[in-house]
Write a structure and sequence with these properties.
The complex is a heterotrimer of chains A (about 140), B (about 650) and C (about 270).
Chain A lengths: L12 H10 L11 H5 L10 H9 L3 H5 L3 H4 L5 H5 L6 H13 L12 H6 L4 H11 L2
Helix pairs in contact in A: 1-7
Chain B lengths: L3 E6 L11 H9 L4 E7 L5 H13 L4 E6 L2 H14 L7 E5 L1 H5 L5 H21 L7 E3 L3 E5 L3 H12 L3 E5 L14 E2 L4 E2 H14 L3 E4 L2 E9 L2 E8 L14 H5 L5 E2 L8 E2 L2 E2 L11 E2 L5 H5 L4 H5 L12 E7 L1 E4 L3 E3 L16 E3 H8 L20 E8 L16 H15 L4 E6 L9 H10 L4 E4 L2 E6 L4 E7 L4 E7 L1 E6 L1 E3 L3 H8 L26 E3 L9 H19 L3 E3 L5 E3 L9 H5 L5 E10 L2 E10 L9 H5 L5 E3 L4 H12 L1
Parallel strand pairs in B: 1-2, 1-3, 3-4, 6-7, 6-18, 7-10, 18-29, 20-27, 21-22, 21-27, 22-23
Antiparallel strand pairs in B: 5-30, 8-9, 11-12, 12-17, 13-14, 15-16, 19-28, 24-25, 25-26, 31-34, 32-33
Chain C lengths: L1 E5 L9 H13 L3 E4 L21 H13 L3 E3 L2 H16 L1 H11 L11 E3 H9 L1 H6 L9 E4 L9 H4 L9 H8 L3 E3 L17 H17 L4 E4 L2 H8 L10 E4 H9 L7
Helix pairs in contact in C: 1-11, 2-3, 3-4
Chain lengths: ~140, ~650, ~270
């Protein structure tokens, strides 16, 4: 593993874009980590929810776009409903996912995969929501 | 001929950065009536004041305008300077070109024009200023303290020490407040009761202090030196004179199911009760909502067993009307409701308790006799999790945006008390930040970590999942990123502090203000921390904001000094800016009297000649000691017969004209 | 009493039991749920991005149709409920979204969030009333140990869903109680089942549903009820799931059973 020095930068355009899409103020967060502590999907995340906001505060969007975390969030809003600072992290997670899939050809879910899912008896609701979350 | 002197202050650069002083000076020189003008960097300094004094004499000035900061800040400073130079102080006017101008504008050109207009208005008004002589009013040399916690007790003791009478009004049946409920106090771990009860006894023994417990202030009117207050003494159903405090009634009362307020609901109390054994006064009250006699008419056991016939079911609330020179508000705080913090299971699991409940559980006089056990099964807890900032620093609708200030320290204390009782137990503290600003505070908290081995975890708890006999605490150590699960026996929540629910009503009654969290507002956050905006009303303790005991006591003594400052005067100088009726125009309709909030206007019959006969005619008359100069009557008066001295219609119109010119 | 009824995609296919039991029970309760004529799929997830409008349009069409009829809009699937209620809230409170949507749809009259969206449970609780419902129970569920499972979408965010306390809800428990059931409380009832993560993160979902089922089992539950087809699917895919130990059904199925209403079996 290699570690590189970074310069914190909150003004870069990806951070600004995330604020625009989510309409959330990442500076409201004081890193209490309540979001992480209550996240039911935490075992599927490489970067913890409170670290997601911290990295946004440091302007490290790239690390987040390549993380497993944003695809492990189930949008259950547990974090948002308990946040003492009124930050809706589920919206920040969504903004990060959109930063990835709004780039042409980078859909997370491939359409070819769907017939197989249908055989699994998965309710339409699951497929539709997955499609909405992972494809643009 | 009026000779006006105008003094323009730069206020360092506060004014001169935004207002072009030279331009203002040029404009001022050409204003009618101005005989002299001068600018200076700090007009409020000794040199600046001397400049005003000297020029008044040298240039024979008879009206003064100082263009500077708000009159709230330095009007009295400059009035004194004018008086020292032999001028009636009310001949001086302030033009507020700082708060009303330089501080709120960025455009220098526009701000300069505004400063000129404001100064021109002040000059126009000053020309019409009359000499005013303030009257005097007597002082009721007694203080009222509202709230009998440590803040109220300390204030009352200090005022009594200075030789003045104090009435201490407390809502509950005993004085003592929250401090009486605490076990040990940080940072020295001395027993709370041991240091508080002597003060409670002192207060009750003092010949200068009258305790009104189980009482509430219901109405306040009047003004500094002369407040009129109605106090409701709730029916105790026990005669205070006859009761000896023997306690037989408490023991014999057949109803034992009411939850003890003092024990935070952890134990029951009878319907006739004293909140705690050291209560002052040691006279029980009957809780009429619980008492069988009051609910069904049957019972009467307490009356039968009382050896001194002190029980009186027919007792009624009494209203006492009293007068005071000063009022000190010390109504304290509460903890927030935890109804909406369901993830911590406080409402659903008996072993999740608040910090205040923990105090009772470890207290030797508490419901368990000081044996720290789980409320659910009375077993000794091995693992205890403490959670800080439950609702503090929380700007969502569940919590309070401020830091509650006392929790970091009392949580460290709780963890050490636990380890003292059970050295083999484990204590975990979840925190966002540890804040230990205070003398000896940091050392105290570090002792918990270094000597006691309390496990401090920077992180939060997501949710507590009760299992069959444990509380599974799911949290995170945010520094390492490790996800934690602690199977705890007990959880202690540091619930946020909040203002008393009735604080807004109290504020309305006293005409003082509150902040957005309903804490009472001090007159100045730095320089007038125990005064309110209402003269003669002072604040101490957590009703003004979250506070620990040392700070509360310091503030209580400070408030006492302020009150003593009023009580020590035999007379207070009146504000001479009061209303005046021109009786020749007055039609005697007395619309002004109906309007006056201070009941300062009454009717008077004047005798005058009409058609050769002497007849009586009704007119309005202003009582100058009661009038507060609000000006309400002047606009109510249809014939325009009332004017406010110092703010006459003519003066106000002259100002408006000057601004519009 | 007439209500506009929005079924959603799953209720017409994999979750037909949910719809049929709900509609037949409603009929037995004297409530007329009229399916909207031209409903479109709501998208199953509420678009969390502030700059997405197109994905909100289908919800608005249903909202407008209900508004034109002057009826409350009843939903049954938790996901549809979440999406339509939140879109309605946007239309009521967010000027930019309201303007863009109205510009696009070119309706006779601008829609400003006038419709009231309620979940079937809210209909039972607030319009019919649990007390009145209890009186109509023919076959009591007495003695049956049933745990309620809320999942995430019904409750959060609480300011918008205005459904129940998201940390300690009681509506499903109150409902079960009025059917006579022995209600089992357990702390995982509001924890997420994993939702759409089951598409490609089965391991993550396994852990989530196992927590829920083991917590319900530990408290002695024999049945779990839910309002969401995806919750039901995920719970039934748990490695701890076993029909003999714990069965999972829609709350409306128990309602139909208690009201002694016939539901066609597939």
């Amino acid at each position: 593993m290699s570690r590189e020095k970074i310069t914190p930068d909150i003004t870069q355009k990806e951070t600004v874009k995330i604020s625009e899409i989510s309409e959330e103020n990442i500076l409201d967060c004081l890193q209490c980590s309540k979001c992480t502590a209550g996240c039911p999907a935490i075992h599927g995340m490489d970067i913890l929810p409170h670290q997601v906001i911290r990295l946004l505060q440091l302007g490290q969007v790239d690390k987040l776009l390549n993380s497993e975390t944003i695809w492990s969030c189930a949008s259950c809003f547990t974090c948002a409903s308990r946040c003492p600072r009124d930050v809706d992290i589920s919206k920040l997670m969504e903004a990060l996912r959109l930063m990835v899939i709004r780039v042409k050809g980078s859909n997370k879910l491939k359409v070819e995969k769907i017939p197989k899912l249908l055989q699994k008896n998965m309710p339409q609701q699951g497929i539709v929501s997955g499609f909405r979350k992972y494809v643009k | 001929m009026q000779r006006v002197g105008v003094f323009i202050c730069w206020c360092g650069t506060n004014i001169s950065n935004t207002v072009n002083i030279d331009e203002v000076m040029t404009a001022v020189e050409n204003m009618p009536g101005v005989a002299y003008s001068k600018d200076y960097q700090y007009m409020c300094s000794e040199i600046g004041q001397n400049l005003v004094k000297d020029t008044i004499k040298e240039h024979n000035l008879n009206r003064i305008v100082v263009a500077s900061c708000s009159p709230r800040m330095h009007e009295s400073t400059f009035r004194k300077a004018a008086e020292a130079a032999g001028l009636n102080p009310y001949l001086l006017e302030i033009a507020n070109i700082r708060e009303h101008c330089s501080w709120v504008h960025k455009d220098k050109e526009a701000a300069t024009q505004k400063a000129i207009s404001l100064t021109r208005a002040a000059v126009a008004k000053a020309i019409l200023n009359d000499e005013l002589i303030p009257g005097e009013v007597g002082v009721e040399r007694r203080a009222l303290v509202i709230g009998g916690g440590i803040a109220g007790i300390q204030t009352a003791l200090d005022i009594a020490d200075a030789g003045y009478e104090v009435d201490l009004v407390e809502k509950t049946p005993s004085i003592g407040g929250k401090m009486a409920q605490l076990d040990k106090t940080f940072p020295t771990l001395d027993c709370s009761a041991c240091i508080l009860t002597p003060k409670m006894v002192d207060a009750s023994m003092s010949s200068k202090i009258n305790l009104y417990t189980y009482s509430e202030v219901e109405e306040v009117s009047g003004f500094v030196g002369n407040f009129e207050v109605a106090i409701r003494q709730k029916a105790r159903s026990v005669d205070m004179e006859k009761c000896t405090g023997c306690g037989i009634c408490l023991a014999k009362c057949p109803i034992k199911t009411a939850l003890s307020e003092f024990e935070e609901g952890l134990s029951n109390r009878p319907a006739i009760y004293t909140p705690f054994p050291q209560a002052v006064p040691n006279v029980p009250v009957i809780d009429r909502e619980t008492c069988m006699k009051f609910r069904t008419g049957r019972c009467g056991v307490c009356e039968k067993v009382c050896p001194t016939k002190a029980v009186d079911y027919d007792q009624k609330d009494q209203i006492l009307n009293k007068k005071y020179g000063a009022i000190i508000v010390t109504t304290g705080y509460d903890l927030i409701d935890l109804d909406y913090f369901g993830e911590y299971q406080y409402m659903d699991h008996p072993d999740v308790i608040t910090g205040l409940e923990f105090e009772r559980l470890v207290n030797a006089a508490g419901p368990t006799g000081g044996k720290l056990i789980r409320p659910s099964d009375k077993k000794k807890p091995k693992k205890v999790v403490f959670i800080q900032c439950v609702g503090s620093r929380d700007k969502s609708d569940r919590g309070k945006s401020y830091c509650s200030k006392i929790c970091c320290m009392y949580t460290a204390k709780h963890a050490m008390l636990l380890k003292d009782k059970y050295p083999d137990s484990e204590a975990y503290v979840f925190y966002i930040d540890v804040r230990t600003a205070g003398k000896g505070f940091e050392e105290f908290q570090r002792r918990a970590v270094e000597n006691y081995g309390v496990n401090y975890i920077k992180g939060m708890v997501g949710k507590i999942f009760p299992t069959n006999n444990k509380l599974q605490v799911n949290g995170v150590d945010s520094l390492s990123g490790e996800i934690l699960q602690i199977d705890a026996d007990m959880v202690v929540l540091a619930a946020a502090t909040k203002a008393k629910p009735e604080a807004d009503d109290v504020a309305r009654m006293l005409s003082i203000s509150t902040d957005s969290d309903s804490f009472f507002s001090e007159a100045h956050p730095k320089l007038r921390p125990v005064e309110t905006h209402c003269a003669g009303i002072y604040l101490a303790g957590a009703c003004q904001g979250p506070k620990d005991i040392p700070e509360t006591v310091a503030q209580a003594s400070a408030a006492a000094v302020k009150a003593i400052g009023v009580l020590s005067k035999s007379k207070l100088v009146n504000n001479p800016c009061v209303s005046e009726v021109d009786k020749s125009i007055c039609s005697g309709c007395l619309a002004c009297a109906d309007m006056c909030p201070y009941e300062a206007i009454s009717e008077k019959i004047v005798e005058e000649k009409a058609n050769g006969k002497i007849v009586g005619r009704r007119v309005a008359e202003v009582n100058e000691t009661l009038c507060q100069g609000c000006g309400g009557c002047t606009v109510t008066c249809r014939p325009g017969a009332i004017d406010l001295k110092g703010f006459s219609n003519k003066q106000i119109l002259a100002e408006v004209d000057a601004i519009c010119r | 009493m007439n209500y506009s009824y929005y079924p959603g995609c799953t209720l017409k296919t994999k979750a037909r039991d949910l719809e049929e039991s709900a509609l037949n029970s409603a009929q037995a309760l004297g409530v007329n749920l009229v399916e909207q004529e031209e409903w479109q799929c709501c998208g199953a997830v509420y678009p969390l991005a502030s700059d997405e409008i197109a994905t909100k349009l289908s919800s608005v069409r249903s909202l407008v149709a209900a508004h034109e009829k002057g009826e409350k809009l009843v939903t049954l699937c938790s996901a549809c409920h979440q999406v339509i209620k939140r879109v309605n809230h946007d239309m009521k409170t967010k000027e930019d979204i309201r303007d863009k949507v109205n510009n696009y749809l070119q309706l006779k009259e601008d829609y400003q969030g006038e419709s009231k969206v309620i979940h079937y449970l809210e209909l039972l609780r607030d319009d019919i009333g649990f007390e009145a419902l209890a009186k109509k129970v023919k076959v009591s569920l007495e003695g049956r140990k049933i745990a309620a499972y809320y999942g995430c979408l019904l409750l959060r965010p609480k300011e918008i869903m205005e459904f129940d306390d998201p940390e300690r809800p009681t509506v499903l428990e109150d409902f079960l109680e009025c059917l006579g059931a022995n209600v089992i409380n357990y702390p995982y009832k509001t924890e997420c089942c994993g939702g759409y993560l089951s598409i490609d993160k089965e391991k993550v979902v396994q852990k989530m549903v196992n927590n829920i089922i083991s917590s319900a089992l530990e408290q002695g539950a024999k049945e779990i009820v839910t309002a969401c087809p995806l919750c039901k699917y995920n719970l039934e895919n748990s490695s701890l799931y076993n029909k003999e130990d714990i069965s999972i059904s829609y709350f409306t199925e128990l309602l139909a059973e208690a009201l002694d209403v016939d539901v066609k079996e597939d």
